[in-house]
Amino acid sequence: MAALKQGDKAPDFKLVGTNLEPITLGNYKGKNVILHFFPLAFTSVCTEQLCTANGEDNDYASLNAEVVGVSVDSPFVLDKFAKENNLKFPLGSDFNRKVSKDYGVLFDGDFAGMSGFSMRSAFVIDGAGVVRYAEITDGKTLPSFVKIKETLAGL
Q: Is 51 a catalytic residue?
């Protein structure tokens, strides 16, 4: 499936949160949502991505936005990762890879003999469920936090 782009309707999703609670797009109806997909917890660039998003929380709150981190890690790994990094936003496990497929960010190539993880990406979804910003990086580069905030400011 091709990656979602600006103007697309965001598919609803159901992720398993760190307390085994469901996280859905519907939970955020009327709010702007920033989905941060990341390949694997406890890796350096993934940690930087989520810790940077964590540091932006005051700016996001003032823009009626909430962050959700998404990876294919188990909810138990994500719980440990969130606690070790003092993350203030929920992390959702896409262990079955459905959400990554639906958003077009499931890596099915070959990276050091591995595949089947989420590509580093960010999506801004408005309160009506429309994608307002979409970025998939090369994996080594963080999504543009400046562009994410600019997009939110324009909503």
A: no
